[in-house]
């Protein structure tokens, strides 16, 4: 029983014993290869999806979701296995068929009593995702853990804990949409393409580019002290089309750029504001790290339904002084160069770099941008219509900044980040454009 105080109201969730959902049919057994792009992001991502229908309650929600899971695991059978270490010392899936972990739960309230369910909140929303007790490392956490929580109002939530090494955001949305389709008795629109060996490293590895995403940046601004001494505040900021339009005008007013996208201008604006809010020394190097979807950038492009990580990290490094002294167009220009960098040869070089060095991207002195604003959260349907809300439970790391879609069919973007209290106060002021 988990109690969370929400003002005077005590939110509690009663969890049942975890069970295992097996694939509905016999599936392949044995070791399943994970590519080097999968190896780099083996972190647990917790997401939550809330459903509520005017026309039907949640009486059979658990059964429908569970049966759908059993069916989708036939296609995505690696999720029914367990992670282990290969003879090469890399992550690999042992397809044992032992199933995904599944937990039924009940909340002591209706959804409307929970407050703002759109805002990530590890304390409250964390109760809606099952955590594997006593797990000492990633290998002891099943790659897929599901909790279905019923609310007193007739709504329910699906809390998902998934290892990022299994799927990237696009793959995860295809998985969720497919799960909804089979739960409703429909054929799968996009069957998963499971062969990740198409992204194997070359033999011998061929490193043709500098991979600064792995660079360790020396911290000279003493921001670690701020993080230790002050409370971390998490806030979200809404950028509607008007605000985004103003930013684009500002970025292009000096004539340096001929065009820029919403992502590029928002990334540049946020990167500068975060440096300013943390009061970085002019000589402090700062690295912007973000994922580029490589699906169409590889030659040939990755097949439709590629179930794995098709993203590659690209980066830009500059001193805080130069970033802040120069106009917004400079920051946006750096981001455009970083995106251009992500060609087929660069991405294959990154795969080979990991093969040769086993290096992990360093997050020292880094801002890591994660874009969920283009993911198809709103098309998931288990028979209760699209989610009334969906998104992450929490931010995975301190330097992560998340771009989230605000609502279906709007061009607005919600920005979510955490900063030490004093830095957040400055950041908030900088957002008043």
From TrEMBL:
The entry's keywords: Acyltransferase, Transferase
Keyword Magnesium included in the entry's annotation: no
Gene Ontology MF terms: acyltransferase activity, transferring groups other than amino-acyl groups
Pfam families: Transferase (PF02458)
Acyltransferase listed as a keyword: yes
InterPro entries: CAT-like_dom_sf, Plant_Fungal_Acyltransferase
Family membership: Belongs to the plant acyltransferase family.
Protein name as catalogued: Omega-hydroxypalmitate O-feruloyl transferase-like
């Amino acid at each position: 029983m988990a109690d969370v105080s929400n003002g005077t109201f005590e939110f509690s969730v009663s969890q049942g014993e975890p069970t295992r959902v097996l694939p509905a049919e016999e599936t392949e057994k044995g070791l399943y290869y994970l590519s080097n792009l999968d190896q780099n992001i083996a972190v647990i991502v917790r997401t939550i999806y809330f459903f509520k229908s005017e026309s039907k309650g949640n009486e059979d929600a658990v059964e429908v979701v569970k049966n759908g899971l059993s069916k989708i695991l036939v296609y995505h059978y690696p999720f029914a296995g367990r992670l282990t270490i290969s003879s090469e010392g890399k992550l690999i899936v042992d397809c044992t068929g032992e199933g995904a972990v599944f937990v039924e739960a009940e909340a002591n309230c209706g959804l409307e009593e929970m407050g703002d369910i759109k805002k990530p909140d590890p304390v409250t929303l964390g109760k809606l995702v099952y955590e594997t007790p006593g797990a000492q490392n990633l290998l002891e956490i099943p790659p897929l853990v599901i909790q279905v929580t019923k609310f007193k109002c007739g709504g329910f939530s699906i809390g998902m804990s998934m290892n990022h090494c299994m799927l990237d955001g696009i793959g995860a949305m295809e998985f969720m949409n497919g799960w909804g389709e089979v739960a409703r008795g429909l054929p799968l629109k996009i069957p998963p393409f499971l062969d990740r060996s198409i992204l194997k490293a070359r033999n011998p590895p061929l490193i043709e580019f500098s991979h600064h995403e792995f660079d360790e940046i020396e911290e000279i601004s003493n921001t670690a002290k701020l993080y230790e001494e002050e409370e971390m505040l998490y806030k979200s900021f809404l950028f509607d089309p008007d605000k985004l339009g103003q930013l684009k005008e500002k970025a292009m007013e000096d004539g340096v750029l001929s065009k820029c996208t919403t992502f590029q201008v928002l990334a540049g604006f946020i990167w500068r504001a975060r440096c300013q809010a943390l009061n970085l020394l002019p000589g402090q190097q700062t690295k912007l790290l973000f994922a580029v979807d490589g699906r169409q950038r590889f030659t040939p492009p990755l097949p439709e339904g590629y179930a794995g990580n098709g993203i590659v990290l690209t980066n830009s490094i500059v001193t805080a002084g130069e970033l802040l002294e120069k106009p917004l167009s400079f920051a946006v220009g750096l981001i455009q160069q970083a995106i251009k960098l992500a060609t087929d040869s660069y991405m294959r070089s990154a795969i080979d770099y990991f093969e040769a060095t086993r290096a992990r991207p360093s997050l020292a002195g880094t801002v890591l941008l994660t874009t969920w604003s283009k993911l198809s959260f709103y098309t998931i349907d288990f028979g209760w219509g699209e989610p009334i809300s969906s998104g992450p439970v929490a931010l995975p790391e301190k330097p992560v900044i998340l771009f989230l879609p605000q609502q279906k069919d709007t061009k607005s973007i919600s920005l979510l980040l955490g900063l030490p209290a004093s830095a957040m106060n400055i950041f908030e002021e900088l957002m008043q454009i």
